[in-house]
Write a structure and sequence with these properties.
This protein is an alpha/beta fold. Helices cover 39% and strands 12% of the residues. Bound molecules: ligand F0G.
Length: 457
């Protein structure tokens, strides 16, 4: 078409009201929540950018598919449909449904990891890291150095540092049961991994005889960013690129709550027969029979349909553009953000915006809470609260202090995004007056979910 405006490639059939609140109500709600937005009642949030996980809108075709769900305990028709869609996309022989991504991680890691082992990854997501560490193994992040500098522009900031991976494999290879790559690299800013880099990782895995697993939560967004950013990929359908990504790996963990376009679901898919058998045995213990794995038959139908819709080009063009649009507006207003825009979220650089708040006073929390108080917007801290506490109990600044504004799929319109941009610019203008926080109470693992904070000063 000859027009340039990229529109939402859908129309809206069903709507849900959002609740407007006054500032005093938000102040009371935030105090009640221990200044931790995870603990807010979602109803008190106007625009919820906490996560893009499970928060997307399903299509009419997905809702229709729900009615086709076969709820048989064993051998359900919905399982075979789900399995065939996953196989067609990934090429992996065995498909194990799980209730979400971390269940796939737990089953894989508990099956194959021993204490003292090492799992290399570009960046582990928080639950992935926690599932490695709970097995007393080390989650080693080997993203390229460019991936650690928010302001630096590079098309594939999710790439693995191949020299560092080779070093790990050469030095600690006997302790590495598998290599992982997260596409897109959520913790590093939703940044994509190039096909060239995946091929490089594959070659190293071949040389050192290690299986390669993708953390594939956002595989479709990665495929589209490869299409638009990697030399020679521009004419390929996203599904084709996604298939090539999977073909370079031996298995994957997947949260269907992201690029499965579903509200719940996930899977572990792999080629190795022995690992599969052991994983299935554990699955039966904790998730369910291998043909439903903790999901209802209708969930399997919704995911199967979602995996087909998510690689459609008009959807991905709109999806990636909507993130880029928000990033452009914030950059134009001088707000420091992680550049370039990632696949599912805009990441505000709280450390750069609040240089007067030291990392151990959590600049991410300061910015996050100001955004909620000012505009009813909820994001999430990806920084020192999430990653600063180490298994030995020590605390240190995380590599970056970011506030992620994750955009649910097919939920918000452009005017919602315009409102978010306006609000972030307004809060950024007050940045010098924002104060840090201290932790009042927190658990030892995954503390960001439930910690209570106190404002300093
Ligand atoms: N891997 C990555 C890269 C993720 O982003 C997530 C979840 C998971 C694994 C775990 O999947 O939630 O289905 O168990 N990320 C969400 C987020 C929660 O907000 O980024 P899950």
């Amino acid at each position: 078409m000859r027009f340039h405006t990229i529109i939402e490639p859908f129309r809206i059939k069903s709507v849900e009201s959002v609740k407007f609140t006054h500032r005093e109500e938000r102040e009371a709600a935030l105090r009640e929540a221990g200044f931790n937005v995870f603990r807010l009642h979602a109803e008190d949030v106007l625009i919820d950018l906490l996560t893009d996980s499970g928060t997307g809108a399903m299509s009419a075709a997905q809702w229709g598919a729900l009615m086709q769900g076969d709820e048989s305990y064993a051998g359900s028709r919905s399982y075979y449909r789900f399995r065939d869609v996953v196989r067609d996309l990934t090429g992996f022989a065995h498909v194990i449904p799980t209730h979400q991504g971390r269940a796939a991680e737990r089953i894989l890691f508990h099956t194959v990891l021993r204490p003292g082992q090492v799992v290399p990854n570009n960046n582990h997501f928080d639950t992935t890291r926690a599932n490695v560490e709970v097995e007393e193994a080390e989650a080693r992040d080997l993203v390229i150095p460019e991936g650690r500098v928010p302001s630096l522009v590079h098309p594939f900031k999710g790439n693995v540092d191949l020299a560092a991976l080779e070093h790990t494999l050469a030095e600690d290879g006997d302790r590495v049961p598998l290599v992982m790559v997260t596409v897109t690299n959520n913790t590093g800013g939703g940044q994509p991994v190039s096909l060239a880099n995946l091929r490089g990782v594959r070659a190293l895995c071949d040389r050192y005889r290690k299986p390669l697993f993708l953390d594939a939560c956002r595989f479709a967004e990665n495929a589209y960013l490869v299409k638009t950013r990697e030399e020679g990929q521009g004419d390929r359908p996203p599904k084709d690129i996604a298939r090539e990504m999977f073909s370079l790996a031996d298995g994957c963990t997947m949260s269907a709550k992201k690029d499965g376009l579903a509200n719940i679901g996930g899977f572990l898919a792999l080629n190795d027969d022995d690992w599969t058998e052991r994983c299935r045995n554990l699955l039966i213990l904790t998730e369910g029979f291998p043909t439903y794995g903790g999901l209802a038959g209708y969930d399997l139908e919704a995911v199967a349909r979602g995996l087909e819709e998510v690689v459609e080009e008009p959807y991905l063009r709109y999806r990636i553009r909507s993130i880029e649009y928000l990033a452009e507006r914030l950059e134009a207003g001088g707000v420091p953000i992680l550049r370039p825009a990632g696949g599912h979220a805009v990441y505000l650089d709280a450390r750069a915006l609040l240089p007067h708040v030291p990392p151990l006073e959590y600049p991410g929390i300061a910015l996050l809470n100001a955004l909620y108080l000012e505009a009813g917007i909820r994001g999430v801290e990806i920084g020192t609260v999430m990653f600063g506490l180490h298994p030995d109990g020590s605390e240190a600044p995380a590599a970056m202090d970011l506030v992620r504004l994750a955009v649910p799929r097919r939920v918000y319109t452009q005017s919602h995004v315009d409102y978010v941009a306006e609000a972030v610019l307004a809060v950024a203008a007050t940045a010098p007056s924002l104060r840090g926080y201290r932790i009042a109470r927190a658990p030892k693992v995954l503390r960001h979910f439930t910690a209570a904070f106190e404002p300093i000063g």
